[in-house]
Write a sequence for this structure.
């Protein structure tokens, strides 16, 4: 990335907020709704101050009623409003599975092109830290299975803002997966208007020996692993997929053709996952380019444990990623 | 634009007690022409359903198919009581409402035939009738899924009228549900939200007394006092005779006017009966033939015909004539549906997303809208 002087640095949550504020100023059809988004200023302070600017008709508190308010917002999107629905946690989206999967994702198809669903569902995804199993869902593998929705997972504040603006402008339903553990991280976000398009992966660090593919928070561990492995003379190319639907498989394939090795890091469970899908596609497209099968790092195949030591051992981490890269490149 | 007084943490208008409609004044009985129009609509729906069952038995229609015969007065009387641009959303027993709203029966039939001429290009089938030109936001197959959508449509019209246009809320949404939907949680979430947000939505319970094979008192608590379901949310309610289209209309009109004026939700129980099974495969062993005959004696079409005969000298010949016209129209719609080509393969990848990427090829509107709806 280019280094400018006096770059503006803000928090991830501020970047999300800026995206919403700017789009709400641009388009009166956009509104924010969810539990504690208004008077409480957001359970994670993402929407802090927005009630003051937009009023209670456009920054709307709901009761704890995901199925009801998700369905309600889908109904409003069918008429052309553009809701941003905040799930305090994507874990809570499970009680709204019918509206978000059956209605949002399929409305355009089922109505033969008559009624679309321009809606964004956003909130925390993944382990927040000792929240135990029901509150630590990584929904990406579960929901990415469904055609009709788009899915974005930002890693840094720049992408958080740029991808969220794209999501709000999209005429299709977008599942926008944030991480509680990233909300306080900081990064450069320019003052001027920009968006980040869907379906364009970002090479976060270049390398020649192994392609390391991930989304969202585990990228942090991928980048750490990449530095550690460089000391051993193994150079990773770290790719941030940015969006899962659409998936920029081309950038991944291009990299694998160069490195001939690939590790996918996916924080959801391994069975029938985003990681297994990417590995499958790479195997099919890069069959003759690979020196080894695609290795994968996931959370362990158990419900998320509460205990600190177990949870740490359960999640993808730098050590596991290093081991996978060494194995994939025959350096184990 | 939003104004300053909409901001803030002051006590909102959240209802803490029931917001009562003072009294349901019956709207006047419409003139003969209107009543004849309703009779024609009910005959049309019944004939359409008869031909639907035939086509199903001839395997021209597949999947699940739910017949509306017996309940025609509910759709006709309630839809007549609202404006043409008031949104409608409902469950899967949806053919009658689509026709009552003005969809040309040929598009409805072609949809069930799985043809490109169908209202949803053959992608939805019997349970999913959509018509943007007629503000019909779908039949929905998952029981009660439409109830939050109904709140959302009302949310949208209110938002459009008040925030985008800066005026007064001027629409009312009709959200139909069967008695089976009373036991899904999302209905109660939807009513709570509708009450909190003052949404102008009428939940029209079509109580035909059976959710599939389960009699209402076996599956629903307080089955004889269903008004308590809405009272819990401070939502006003009424019972209407769903077999009497005139009664249906007269009460419904004043209810709809009140909802529109006050921007409040309402819960209407329309008491009715479905003559046929839950779906085409239902042998109806859970109820007696005697019960069915008793209910069929009190038929919505007969009731209106009798009224018209007594009040306006409506003759048997006139009825025969009307029946004949309806039969011709439905026969023509079956022919039209049959002649419509099967949905072509390239439609498989259309309408998944509005834009083109990967295997998805964007979206396109059905023929029905291209032709600008019915002629």
């Amino acid at each position: 990335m280019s280094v400018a002087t006096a770059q503006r640095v803000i928090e991830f949550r501020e970047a999300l907020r800026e995206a919403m504020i700017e789009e709400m100023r641009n388009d009166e059809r956009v509104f924010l709704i969810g539990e504690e988004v208004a008077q409480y200023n957001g359970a994670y302070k993402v929407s802090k101050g927005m009630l003051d600017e937009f009023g209670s008709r456009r920054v709307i508190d709901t009761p704890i009623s995901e199925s009801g308010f998700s369905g309600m917002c889908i109904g409003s999107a069918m008429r052309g409003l553009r809701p941003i629905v905040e799930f305090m946690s994507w874990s809570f989206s499970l009680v709204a599975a019918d509206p978000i999967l059956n209605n949002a994702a399929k409305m355009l198809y089922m109505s033969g092109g008559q009624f679309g669903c321009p809606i964004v569902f956003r909130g925390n995804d993944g382990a927040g830290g000792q929240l135990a199993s029901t509150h630590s869902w990584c929904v990406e593998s579960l929901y990415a299975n469904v055609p009709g929705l788009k899915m974005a997972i930002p890693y840094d504040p720049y992408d958080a803002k740029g991808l969220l603006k794209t999501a709000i402008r999209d005429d299709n339903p977008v599942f926008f997966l944030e991480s509680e553990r990233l909300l306080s991280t900081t990064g450069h976000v320019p003052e001027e208007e920009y968006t980040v398009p869907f379906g364009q992966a970002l090479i976060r660090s270049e390398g020649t020996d192994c392609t390391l593919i991930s989304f969202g928070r585990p990228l942090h561990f991928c980048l750490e692993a990449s530095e550690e492995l460089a000391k051993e003379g193994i150079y990773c190319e770290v790719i941030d997929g940015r969006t899962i639907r659409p998936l920029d498989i081309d950038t991944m394939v291009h990299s694998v053709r160069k490195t001939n090795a690939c590790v996918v890091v996916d924080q959801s469970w391994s069975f029938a996952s985003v990681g297994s899908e990417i590995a499958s596609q790479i195997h099919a497209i890069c069959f003759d380019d690979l020196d080894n099968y695609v290795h994968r790092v996931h959370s362990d195949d158990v419900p998320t444990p509460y205990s600190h030591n177990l949870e740490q051992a359960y999640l993808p981490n730098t050590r596991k990623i290093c081991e996978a890269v060494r194995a994939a490149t025959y350096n184990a | 634009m939003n104004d300053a007084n909409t901001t803030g943490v002051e006590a909102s208008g959240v209802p803490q007690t029931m917001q009562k409609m003072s009294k349901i004044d019956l709207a006047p009985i419409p003139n003969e022409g209107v009543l004849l129009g309703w009779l024609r609509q009910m005959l049309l729906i019944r004939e359409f359903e008869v031909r639907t069952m035939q086509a199903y038995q001839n395997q021209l229609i597949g999947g699940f198919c739910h017949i509306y015969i017996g309940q025609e007065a509910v759709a006709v009387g309630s839809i007549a009581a609202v404006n043409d641009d008031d949104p409608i959303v409902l469950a899967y027993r949806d053919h009658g409402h689509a026709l009552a709203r003005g969809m040309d029966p040929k598009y409805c039939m072609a949809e069930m035939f799985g043809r490109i001429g169908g209202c949803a290009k053959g992608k939805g089938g019997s349970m999913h009738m959509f018509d943007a030109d007629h503000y019909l936001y779908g039949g929905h197959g998952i029981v009660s899924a439409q109830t939050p959508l109904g709140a959302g449509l009302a949310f949208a019209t209110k938002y459009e009228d008040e925030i985008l246009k800066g005026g007064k809320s001027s629409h009312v949404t009709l959200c139909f549900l069967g008695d089976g939907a009373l036991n899904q949680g999302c209905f109660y979430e939807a009513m709570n939200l509708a009450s909190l947000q003052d949404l102008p939505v009428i939940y029209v319970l079509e109580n035909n007394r059976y959710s599939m094979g389960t009699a209402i008192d076996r599956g629903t608590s307080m089955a004889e006092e269903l008004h308590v379901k809405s009272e819990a949310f401070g939502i006003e309610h009424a019972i209407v005779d769903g077999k009497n289209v005139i009664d249906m209309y007269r009460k419904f009109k004043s209810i709809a006017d009140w909802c529109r004026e006050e921007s409040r939700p309402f819960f209407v129980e329309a008491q009715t009966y479905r003559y046929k099974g839950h779906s085409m495969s239902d042998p109806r062993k859970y109820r007696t033939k005697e019960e069915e005959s008793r209910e069929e004696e009190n038929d919505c079409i007969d009731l209106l015909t009798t009224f018209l005969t007594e009040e306006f000298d409506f003759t048997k010949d006139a009825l025969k004539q009307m029946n004949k016209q309806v039969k011709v129209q439905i026969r023509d719609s079956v022919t039209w549906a049959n002649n419509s080509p099967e949905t072509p393969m390239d439609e498989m990848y259309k309408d998944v997303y509005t834009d083109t990427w990967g295997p998805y090829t964007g979206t396109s509107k059905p023929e029905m809208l291209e032709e600008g709806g019915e002629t």
